[in-house]
């Protein structure tokens, strides 16, 4: 049942190329320049006329929402807010029938997300769901939605659900941008083709597994980790830190790289491994200077870099290489080495990887 892997988590990490394909199959036709999402077609005007899109979720799904904020605002120019469902529902939020809410949930059963959806509906908002579990409470409570087709996720630490959520959200943003006219034909076609290539890129990223296992061996006894990223890879840094915390019980924090100087840099010393997502992007030079700041304080750098990288590779203590893809799609590949790193550390520490202490797969308590 674990398909030859020691843990469901590893099986699910390795399933990502195929489940991302399942998620866009029949919905993304790159050659024809088409995106067709059954649940979306009738509601496109609702999205395009919305004052803003509010994304609500918890945990890893909330991180997928944060990635989507970058993608949606850039492509569609519709304002996006991302909220923890638990905060949203208890703070008397301002919400009207001009708002569109996207609720993201792997299980479709998360109590806070479900309650936030009910509140948004009461206030007249249109609520769109992105769930993995078919027929789940959230998929029934929302007005419409799109399923991720990740298949059952058994490991408590969410992996393939995250990348398939981002796949769906990216398709929605591209469809809306195309309809609204906020993306050029050329960019639209490019993204469609590149999205179709993501399963191949993820396969490529998975090839670093052995190398990452060696890195895990070096750092398994660290008591703290920092994860840094910028732009749409800032949420990936948060997600990397969450994965490490929940399955290895090592304290880890994710930060936007530029926030370092506003406090966390005080933590840097020779005992602090810092995982930096330093892929080719508009932020590359800025990330290089962030790395210099860390190195000059004797911090240890484990960098996620694009293949062919030289500058960061020279500065970093360890690198994890991912293939090239347009910046907007990079979260789908940069996530992979971070999943593997936390997995190997947890295994080396003999943790219960698939069922970490104190955690449940569906959080149905409030
Ligand atoms: C992290 C994790 C949790 C869930 C969160 C939301 O690996 O699994 O943080 O992401 O409990 O769950 P869903 O997506 O089912 O609403």
Automatic annotation (TrEMBL):
The active site is at residue 361. One of its GO terms (biological process) is carbohydrate metabolic process. Keywords: Aminotransferase, Cytoplasm, Glutamine amidotransferase, Repeat, Transferase. Catalyzes the first step in hexosamine metabolism, converting fructose-6P into glucosamine-6P using glutamine as a nitrogen source. Its EC number is 2.6.1.16. Its main location: cytoplasm. Homodimer. It catalyses: D-fructose 6-phosphate + L-glutamine = D-glucosamine 6-phosphate + L-glutamate. It is found in: Cytoplasm. The keyword Repeat applies. GO terms for cellular component: cytosol. It comes from Ulvibacter litoralis. This is Glutamine--fructose-6-phosphate aminotransferase [isomerizing]. It comes from the Bacteria. Residues 43-182, 215-356 form the SIS domain. The chain holds residues 250 to 615 of 615 of the full protein. The lineage of its organism: Bacteria, Pseudomonadati, Bacteroidota, Flavobacteriia, Flavobacteriales. One of its GO terms (molecular function) is carbohydrate derivative binding.
